[in-house]
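Reopening this ticket.

The earlier resolution said the output was attached, but the attachment link was broken on my side. Pasting everything inline this time so it's all in one place.
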Amino acid sequence: MPADPDDERTGLGGVHLKYLHHCPRQLWLYGRGYRPEHTSDLVAFGEAVNDTTFTRRRDVDLGEASIDWVTTGATVHETKSSRTPSPAHAAQVRHYCLLLERRGVAVRGGTVHYPLIRRTTDVPWNDDARAQAEADEDQARAVLAAPTAPPRLPRNQCRGCSYRDYCWGE
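Inline output:
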């Protein structure tokens, strides 16, 4: 069954969920159109890693989200330039699994690839993961609907964030 564009559950991409877990303020700003990522060297580096790793795969465009690739058997794959696995990365994969499931795909789970450290992290897809993905969507929508920005994180947690200048006025 194809996704219904009038369904309130549509419209959130993986970036929304990644930002929710990294910094709700970043999500709130992103939702209001503030997009400094194009000026970030770290974002450019991540895009280069993504473009030069696993080059035989194809992105899967879901409209609101773009999955790095999906293998036979419906396993979602996401590539990250980070050297440290993050709960935000797993949340992003769970969100992709949920989006695919809503489109009638029998999803198996996902894998986050960290080519710089040559590691992978498996992300299970089960009832608990589905419930977490749905709760994350609800939480992201609440952040986006808030009339004011959430508080900024402690400065030491903002290292490398493309939104740092906005939040800290540097």
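Reporter confirms the inline version is readable. Helices lie at 14-22, 24-31, 41-52, 87-102, 127-145, 164-168. Strands lie at 60-61, 66-67, 69-71, 75-79, 109-114, 119-124.
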